[in-house]
Protein: ABC transporter permease
Organism: Xanthobacter flavus
Amino acid sequence: MTLATADTQKAPGGLAATLAHARYVISDNPVTGIAFGMFLVLVVCATFGPFIVPYDPLASDTAAALQPPSAAHWFGTDNLGRDIFSRVVVASRLDMAIAIFSVALVFAVGGVAGIASGFFGGWTDRIIGRISDTIMAFPLFVLAMGIVAALGNTVTNIVIATAIINFPLYVRVAKSEAAIRRNAGYVQAARLTGNSEWRILLTTILPNIMPIMMVQMSLTMGYAILNAAGLSFIGLGVRPPTPEWGIMVAEGSAYIVSGEWWIALFPGLALMFAVFCFNLLGDGLRDIVDPQRRT
């Protein structure tokens, strides 16, 4: 066999191998397939929602106010005559954006801080540990309320507050995983080849703890959406008339007693759908990124 023939018969690597493994994971576990299907629905709504909804989510029509679900308005209308289906779909972009940016921020800060704490120990561990303990001393949602109230109820501040209250969770998970692996054989080998400590931390330790961190990130995505909705529900989140699930539930709660149940029900179902999706998604993401599970 020639060298060229041997090269063409090599197993695909890089992105192709990752995609092939992802297909295997999704097909092997129906629950994971359902979770990725739900995630795809959320991505489509967040990306294309403003272009596919039948009505302007901000346009009011008092003549059509408080109409129940019908062929014209699938989820009914609210007290201002706005189409609830359009508002629920468009709101997915804002809620997903808050979740993604807050999780990315806390992973970049809390995850790296936790790895450094577990890998280096000493004063690094003590400083990061005291910061985490200080944050954990407060009820987390109350702390988020205080941060947003002090800084202002903007989307940026909601992202910052959500990242801060999740900081200790990422630190503890990353610290425990890094502490287990800092004396592993492959870490010692990397050190003997002349790699710096920070290079080992970022290129050797971090990839090996990504599976458990992916589960944590998936769970935090759902919590971030709930946190943003909760802040909006009590008036400290996104301001009306911006479509947001928490605001819509708050607006609809006043009409449940009078029989207009659909105003709060459908945004609440959207919240439940998103949180349920991310709770199921974690195990599938772990299986995809874990090198020990490659087939």
In short: The CA atoms of residues 99 and 224 lie 5 Å apart. The chain has a mean pLDDT of 86. DSSP finds eleven helices and no strands in the chain. The two ends are 26 Å apart (CA to CA).
